[in-house]
Amino acid sequence: MSNVHVMDHPLIQHKIGIIRREETGSKDFRMMIGEIAMLMCYEATRDLKLQDVEIQTPICKMTAKELAGKKLAVVPILRAGLGMVEGMLAMIPAAKVGHIGLFRDPKTLEPVEYYCKLPADCEEREVFVVDPMLATGGSCIAAIQMLKNRGVKNIRFMCIIAAPEGVKKLQEAHPDVEVYIGALDEKLNEHGYIVPGLGDAGDRIFGTK
Ligand SMILES: O=P(O)(O)OC[C@H]1O[C@H](OP(=O)(O)OP(=O)(O)O)[C@H](O)[C@@H]1O
Ligand SMILES: O=c1cc[nH]c(=O)[nH]1
Ligand SMILES: [Mg+2]
C-alpha cells in the first residue's frame, strides 16, 4: 500500500485518542478535529516541490526556498469535512477551497450528491480532499470521481479514521490518489460504522445528535 500513509506522529495519535472518547463534547471535538487536520496537513505536504528564489535579507542577498509547481486547493466533503478546513488553511493559507456535498444513505450506505462548487481553475491545482471518516469508501470515491470528471489530475485524500474495507475500495477505484490516514481501525460494523471509530463525525462536530 505504497500510496497509503498512516500517521505515526505522537501528537496526532494523542488527539485522536481524545476525539474517540464518548464523553468528548462538540466544542472540544471540533477543536481537536481542526488541530489534527493541521498536523496531518503538515505531514502530508512533506513532498511538495521547492524552488530557489533570490531574495534580499536586511543583511545581504541570498538564495532562499519557496514552494514551486502547482497551486493548492482544499475540498471538504460536507458536512464533516468542514471541520478540517480551518486546520488545513492554517498550514496552507493561499489554498482555494471547494465544497462537495455528499451524505451516505443510511439504508443502502451509498453516497448521495447534493452540492458541488469548486474553484474555477481547480484542474490546474493539487487538490486535498478532506473528510474525517473513510468507512465503506463510497463517499470519498464519489468525491474524487467528481473532481476527475472536472479534469483534476493531482488529488490527495486525507481522513482522520479509516476502515480497512474502505481503504481497499478506494485504492482499487483510484490507485493514483495518495491517501493520508490518522488511524487505521479494525473493521466496519453491520451498520457501516467504523469499529472502534468515534461514532458519527458530522453529528459530533455540529452537535446534531
Ligand atoms: O466511507 P463512507 O461509507 O461513504 O462513509 C463516510 C462518510 O460518512 C460520513 O458522512 P455522512 O454521510 O454522515 O454525512 P455528514 O458529514 O453530513 O454527517 C463521513 O463524514 C463521510 O463523508
Ligand atoms: O463510523 C462512521 C462511518 C461513517 N461516518 C461516520 O461519521 N462515522
Ligand atoms: Mg454524518
TrEMBL record:
Pfam families: UPRTase. Pathway: Pyrimidine metabolism; UMP biosynthesis via salvage pathway; UMP from uracil: step 1/1. InterPro entries: PRTase-like, PRTase_dom, Upp_B, UPRT, UPRTase/APRTase. Keywords: Allosteric enzyme, Glycosyltransferase, GTP-binding, Magnesium, Nucleotide-binding, Transferase. It catalyses: UMP + diphosphate = 5-phospho-alpha-D-ribose 1-diphosphate + uracil. Its EC number is 2.4.2.9. Residues 6-208 form the Phosphoribosyltransferase domain. Transmembrane segments: none annotated. It comes from the Bacteria. Coiled coil: none annotated. Binds 1 Mg(2+) ion per subunit. The magnesium is bound as Mg-PRPP. NCBIfam families: PRK00129.1 (NF001097), upp (TIGR01091). GO terms for biological process: UMP salvage; uracil salvage. Uracil binds at I194, G199, D200, A201. It comes from Coprococcus comes. 5-phospho-alpha-D-ribose 1-diphosphate binds at R79, R104, D131, P132, M133, L134, A135, T136, G137, G138, S139, D200. One of its GO terms (cellular component) is cytoplasm. This is Uracil phosphoribosyltransferase. Catalyzes the conversion of uracil and 5-phospho-alpha-D-ribose 1-diphosphate (PRPP) to UMP and diphosphate. Its cofactor is Mg(2+). GO terms for molecular function: GTP binding; magnesium ion binding; uracil phosphoribosyltransferase activity. Allosterically activated by GTP. Belongs to the UPRTase family. The keyword Flavoprotein does not apply.
